[in-house]
Write a structure and sequence with these properties.
Helix content is 30%, strand content 23%. By secondary structure, it is α+β, with helices and mostly antiparallel strands. It has eleven helices and eleven strands. This is Peptidoglycan-binding protein. It comes from Funiculus sociatus GB2-A5. InterPro entries: PGBD-like_sf (IPR036365).
């Protein structure tokens, strides 16, 4: 049955609330719920009509978010009832409430989450639901760096919000920009024609656990780009985005390590990827994000990553 059919039957007391097993036994209903959860960005495609742990976790996450505007849905957590069915039918993406987060502190992680919420970026809330964030032009303490070209002067961070309070789990040196080598001598393909890639600020659900091959000399586990992202093409080789051509597509913008290169020389480690400077820091990064509950349920989970300009963050939410 479709959601509307379930809702009408439940409204007229011709049906009972459905647990996960009952949803899974009705392929049409399971398919419809999956379609809605994908539309609302609580579930990754594709639709398969099999309502297992990944789909049920997405349904619970939807209920947890919606309880801020519809408290009664909390009573149906983990199963399909009248309120949940109505919300799935009626809720467009534009009115999905922002998650409940305690932002009374003014530490770096709280300021980042405030910024993300203001920009209407997705914020993951709950134990082992990690927010991967890169802040360009920032030092570890949240002050602005020089943001000089060819330096590891950006931050790679992982923020968890287990009990409504943001916690900065890790904060590593990194870069969101290509170094001098690949800016002045772009790689083949579109980079050669249009210039080196510099990722556009924003949020992308575009990476899976995979392998970064690089030159092939030192392949290692990394977050591998599997969905399109937007980049600015530095054709004039001036190391800034202003006036550059915006290009969207699959460009091997992976999240990998920087081979322990010195802080003041990205060298050949960065051609536009999101790079953590050290090997060990990157190993720690991968070990942490692989504890994400969503990855544990689905090894093909696509990770969301947010890239923020440090100067705008500090301007809007000063320390």
């Amino acid at each position: 049955m479709r959601l509307q059919t379930f809702y009408n039957a439940r409204l007229n007391n011709q049906s009972v609330d459905y647990g996960i097993e009952a949803i899974a036994s009705d392929e049409e209903l399971a398919t419809h719920i999956q379609e809605v959860l994908i539309w609302l960005k609580f579930l990754d495609p594709p639709v398969d009509g099999k309502f297992g742990p990944i789909s049920s976790d997405a349904l619970v996450e939807f209920q947890d978010v919606m309880k801020t505007s519809e408290p009664a849905v909390a009573e149906e957590r983990g199963f399909l009832g009248l309120v949940t069915a109505r919300l799935l039918i009626e809720t467009p993406p534009s009115v999905v409430p922002k998650p409940e987060v305690d932002l009374t502190k003014n530490n770096l992680e709280a300021r980042i989450i405030r910024y993300m919420l203001k920009m209407n970026y997705r914020v993951s809330v709950g134990p082992q639901r990690y927010n991967i964030v890169y802040v360009e032009g920032m030092d570890a303490d949240g002050s602005l760096s020089s943001d000089a070209p060819n330096h590891f002067n950006d931050r790679r961070m992982v923020i968890e919000i287990p009990n409504q309070v943001p916690i900065l789990r890790q904060n590593w040196e990194g870069t969101t920009e290509p170094g001098t080598a690949y800016t002045l001598n772009p790689m083949k393909g579109r980079a050669k024609e249009f210039g080196a890639a510099r990722i556009a600020f924003g949020q992308y659900k575009a990476w899976k656990v995979g392998t970064h091959w690089g030159s092939g000399a030192e392949p290692h586990e990394a977050l591998e780009q599997v969905s399109p992202v937007s980049v600015y093409r530095d054709k004039n080789k001036d190391f800034i985005r202003s006036g550059d051509f915006l290009d969207t597509g699959m460009f091997h913008i992976n999240q990998h390590w920087g081979y322990d290169l010195p802080r003041n020389n990205i060298g050949m480690a960065g051609a536009g990827c999101l790079v953590g400077r050290t090997r060990q820091g990157h190993r720690d990064f991968m070990a942490l994000i692989k504890q994400d509950k969503r990855y544990q349920l689905n090894k093909g989970y696509r990770f969301v990553t947010t890239i923020i300009p440090g100067d705008d963050l500090v301007r809007q939410f000063p320390a």
